[in-house]
Known about the structure:
InterPro entries: Glyas_Bleomycin-R_OHBP_Dase (IPR029068). 21% of the residues lie in helices and 38% in strands. It is an alpha/beta fold. It has one domain: 2,3-Dihydroxybiphenyl 1,2-Dioxygenase, domain 1, CATH 3.10.180. Strand 9 (138-142) and strand 10 form a beta hairpin. The protein is globular.
Amino acid sequence: MTFIDAVTLDVADPTAAQHFCTTAFGLDTQIRLRASEAPSTGFRGFTLTLTVSQPADVRALVDSALEAGATSLKPAMKSLWGYGGVVRAPDGTIWKVATSAKKDTGPTTRKIDEIVLLLGVADVIASKRFYVEQGLAVGKSFGRVYVEFAAGEGPVKLALYRRRALAKDVGVSADGSGSHRLAIGGEAGPFTDPDGFAWEAASLTPAP
């Protein structure tokens, strides 16, 4: 089964971006960083979601992200689907921290259960078909709205959502152009998907 081996963010200052990831979320090798000045304006078409077990962990991670220099796009609050908040990192990456739980059941742990790379796509059905052809296994599918692929042994799970719906969910305009400033590493690569997201062969991704 094909899975994501690495997610690499193109950033202007990898050292600063690494400091943010470590300080805000306690992430180390799960997300890779490399220097790039690729032009990009507006919404980059993807978000990174950290799923946790309870609202207290959402608040703790969102607060630490803000203290590390992020800006708030949506404050941590209860929603129809659970509890979550959204921030934009200093390098421009949009991060969502969320849980399906609406009440705390224990002390704050800041433990991250899953990291999900959510791609905003023009046609969920077409993109789902494309990724299945590349060897990814579907975990959950909700018609033309949302698709989640099995994570396999990779550190990051891949999911698809309609671009405009994703932008609305995180509180930004769907308009954007230029580089996604993202590269996905895996054994299925190299290829570029229907929405311009580039996969690289796992052996070509930079070492953590």
